[in-house]
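Below is one such protein, fold included:
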Amino acid sequence: MPLTIRAPTIDELSSLSDLCFGSKAVWGYDEEKPIGVAQVKVVDGEADLLKLFVEPSALRSGTGKALLVWVTDVAKKLGATRLTIDADPDAAPFYRRMGAYDVGEAPSGSVPGRMLPKLAMNLCPAD
């Protein structure tokens, strides 16, 4: 079979990442894989949690809390005094336990017509 080299499609990126980790494992590298992701945007003292997701097998392991602490630390360093969160309804109790409070509702960006709990957390000003 001839070898074909081409740029990957976006849909292939996840499986290519798995291929890289599998290849490294052959040579004795750790097989660690990401179990969570978080992203925050800070504009004019307001931080917006763009995403915080945890691999389902790692739920209730402290990963979400660690990611949220990281997010708030980054936001404070960038001068934010408040973090807003458009939470999935099932994730809202987690954010409330972490100190967030309800401030209203926001439209879902992925499910038309669905409203999400809008939460906020007060952050101490950066030192």
Summary: The helical segments are 13-26, 63-77, 92-97. The mean pLDDT is 88.
